[in-house]
Amino acid sequence: MESTAGQRQVPEELLTAVLNRRYSVPVAVTSRHPKPSEDHGLSEDQRPTGDHKLAEDQGQDHGPSEDHHRPTEDHSEDHIEDHSEDHGPTQDRRPSGDQGLAARPRLAVLGAGDYGRAFATRAVRSGYQVALGSRNPNKNRSLTQRTGAVVCSVEEAVRTSDLAVICVPFAFYNQLPVSTLSGKVVVDISNSTPKKLAQGGPSNAEDLQNMIPKSQVVKGFNVISAYALENNLQGGKKVFIAGDFAESKAVVATLITDMGFTAADMGGLVAARKIEKIPLQLFPSWKTAIIVTALIFIFFWIYSLFKYQICTSIESARPWEAEDFTSVLMVNFNKALAMSAITILAATYLPGILAAYLQLKRGTKYRRFPRWLHRWLVIRKQLGLAALMLAMIHGVISITMSSPFYLAKAYDRPAILQARVVGLNTSQPVPVFNRLRQGRAELGLSVGATSICLLTVIGITSLPSVGGALSWREFQFVQSGLGWAALLAAVLHNALLGWDFMVRNYSCSMPSAQQVGIYLPAITVLLKMPLLIPFVSNHLAAIRAGYERAGSSQ
């Protein structure tokens, strides 16, 4: 075969066999440099550069994603058609018998550590011929032989293979057999380190490509753990790949598919810099939601402190006492939980309402939303789960506080008895409460419990394993229909239990925390109501189905 820039190409027989398996039709390799339209990888101008980020890198992309949240009836995402190809054959399209084995490349897994053994085990189970290369093949034979692979030296494993998977730490890459790897497709599965990321510069995969310039390096598998490989977990998980050779990426993508995962081509090898960051990140898609949740909770806690402790002491014109602040740790905390939960739940559905009004104004769904609205839309799932968490904690604490001492307004008016204190020769009034709650309190507690139950159902259906088993109509009913029911029940719960505080308690000219907490939910519900008018609802549905008002695309 002819070389280009001193680099050997993937053997034509291997590439042809892999492509035939991959697309289930005869494929002839006629050129080593396919035209851009024939390249199954991303073209140069499509490769991520600059500020473009992976969808799972920062929890967002430049368009709404199915991974973030399925749409509800107030779905705000722009219409994005799926033009992606099926990069993996379904089970019934794969070759079987000798034909399938012949089409699969021979693998060399370099490194007999935990990851190397797990990778070799998964590859063997997927029908591949695997040579497990080790610096000392006789070491830990009881473990390496369980993989089903042929255990041999690193050099022998590479020499007898078509594709090599490097499963050793990057610090030991300088010990790789460079000459033997020449002309091979090499998969780099390593991750970077915080220190190297802080320094910037090339990725591990790029450094490896420089070490073995006559090989074709593909980044991949770094987002899959050894435990998941060995125990057949995370089936269908997206595995990002990057490389400068479309043919090599096609081979690795087929390997990923055969092992039960989904390949996602991110473009050239430079994209490995972002791919290597993914395992080191801590809940990237949750950062904004966590910050918003924390700020809302802190606001309500501080507001309650000023309202019920500081202001009360100021208005009574008496010195502060420690007893005035005993309720800060539980009562105020519980109020902040409740008001934060209902506010965040309203913030989960409000962006969909705003997007609906924006689409009605524009008369089209094919225009991008403002960036602030898009960022708000893609964290709705996280906000909803945060509201569920706060609501459940509020419910548990409320059970422990279910007594007239904490919530006297929920009980019937007590009888006042005059009791004499023995030994002090004094008397003081003692309230004796009826053991029954008021009907309003009973209803308020019931709808509050109902709201938490509905939120729990919504949270469960947000799990991919559960949501994937539902039809689109079922999923929409749960996420939208039950979601709005939960919001209305929470508003009613707050109004019934906090009515006396809202109407009569204005110390320091400040409304109660219950009243402040109902502001955003009330606004959200009021904005939703016009969208339920049949004329408006039908027009919005037409726009989301593709209708465009004349001149709306400008």
Characterization of this structure:
The chain is an alpha/beta fold and 554 residues long. Helix content is 47%, strand content 9%. The protein contains 21 helices and 10 strands. Strands 3-2-1-4-5-6-7-8 form an 8-stranded mixed sheet, with helices on both faces. The chain starts with 11 loop residues before the first helix and ends in a 10-residue tail after the last helix. Residues 1-8 and 22-102 have low confidence and may be disordered.
Summary tags:
554 residues, alpha/beta, Rossmann fold, 2 domains, eight-stranded mixed sheet, two-stranded antiparallel sheet, 21 helices, 10 strands, elongated, disordered N terminus
Would you spell out the secondary-structure blueprint of this structure?
Blueprint: H1 12-23, H2 97-103, E1 107-110, H3 114-125, E2 130-134, H4 141-144, E3 150-153, H5 154-159, E4 163-166, H6 178-181, E5 185-188, H7 194-199, H8 204-211, E6 216-219, H9 226-230, E7 238-243, H10 246-258, E8 262-265, H11 272-275, H12 287-316, H13 328-362, H14 371-377, H15 380-400, E9 415-421, E10 426-432, H16 439-461, H17 464-467, H18 472-504, H19 513-517, H20 519-528, H21 534-544
Parallel strand pairs: 1-2, 1-4, 2-3, 4-5, 5-6, 7-8
Antiparallel strand pairs: 6-7, 9-10
Helix pairs in contact: 1-10, 12-13, 12-15, 13-15, 13-18, 13-20, 15-16, 16-18
* Percent helix: 40-55%
Query: In percent, how much strand structure appears in the residues?
Result: 5-15%
The assigned structural class equals alpha/beta
Identify the strand order in the major beta sheet.
3-2-1-4-5-6-7-8
Q: What are the low-pLDDT stretches, counting only 5+ consecutive residues below 50?
A: 1-8, 22-102
